Amino acid sequence: MEFAGVHHVSLNVGDLEQTARFYTEILGLKVLPRPDFGFPGMWLDAGAQQIHLIQVDQHAAPEGQHFALRVEDVDVAARELTGKGVKVRGPFEIPGAGRQCFLRDPSGNLIELNQPA
């Protein structure tokens, strides 16, 4: 078996509408067509991968769990998000790995922005 990469990550969210606005209006991701699975959700285009949002009752973001979005310049991305009112931690230099910063979506999910070395 050989893998070609990650197709998508799925995130549980507490408020689909509010969290979807964050991913589309703040992060700039595009909405993709999604079949009706009988529960609220949304598929988003994140470049070569997708992010799938799934609304769940009484959602609590898992501690420490995160996913990373690759960016060309993490400093520029962090400044842009801060300017939009998003609380950003970092950027930080990770020796041998690159630069990264962290933020949370409205449902509390942790997102890393990663600029590889």
Average pLDDT confidence is: 96
List the quaternary state of the chains.
single chain
Instruction: Determine the number of helices (DSSP H or I, runs of at least 4 residues).
Output: 2
CATH class: Alpha Beta
Structural class: alpha/beta
Quick one: biggest sheet? Answer: 4 strands, mixed
SSE run: EHEEEEHEEE
How much of the residues is beta strand, in percent? 35-45%
Which CATH architecture? Roll
Radius of gyration over all CA atoms, rounded: 15 Å
What is the domain total for the residues? 1
Q: What does this 3D model show about the protein?
A:
The protein has 117 residues and is α/β, with parallel strands linked by helices. The protein has a single domain, classed as Roll (2,3-Dihydroxybiphenyl 1,2-Dioxygenase, domain 1). 18% of the residues lie in helices and 40% in strands. The protein has helices spanning 16-26, 74-83; strands at residues 8-13, 30-32, 41-46, 49-55, 66-70, 89-94, 98-104, 110-116. The strands form two sheets. Strands 1-4-3-2 form a four-stranded mixed β-sheet, with helices on one face. A four-stranded mixed β-sheet has the order 5-8-7-6, with helices on one face. A hairpin with a 5-residue loop joins strand 7 (98-104) and strand 8 (110-116). The radius of gyration is 15 Å and the shape is globular.
Give a nutshell description of this structure.
It contains 2 helices and 8 strands, in the order βαββββαβββ. Strand 6 and strand 7 form a beta hairpin.
